[in-house]
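In the current project phase, the collection of sequences with tokenised folds has grown. A representative record is quoted in full directly below:
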Amino acid sequence: MQPCGCALPLAVVRQFLEEHTVKTAKDEDDGGFTAWIEELPGCVSDGATEPEALDNLAEAFRGVTDETRSVMQQRQPSAAAAARFRDGEMDVPKRDRSSVVPEG
């Protein structure tokens, strides 16, 4: 498996693949193989051989986790926004609970 410059260490990828359901299937049309992780929809790869498909699946998994990490980092508040919230300068709307909490 070639390094891809991803932040996720190869040992973590291998451990994940060992702990989850990885399936492979031979493509009768072209003779190649497809590999996927059942618990992670959309994480699919292929290769000319089964070992190649599994190596490619590990790289696909790294790509999925890197993309997820990137999206989550974009959702993090800036340090300035976090400080304003901490200092009480940023109002957070309070939810109207009257419809879900009975009075009395």
Strands lie at 22-26, 33-37, 44-47. Confidence is low (pLDDT under 50) at residues 1-5.
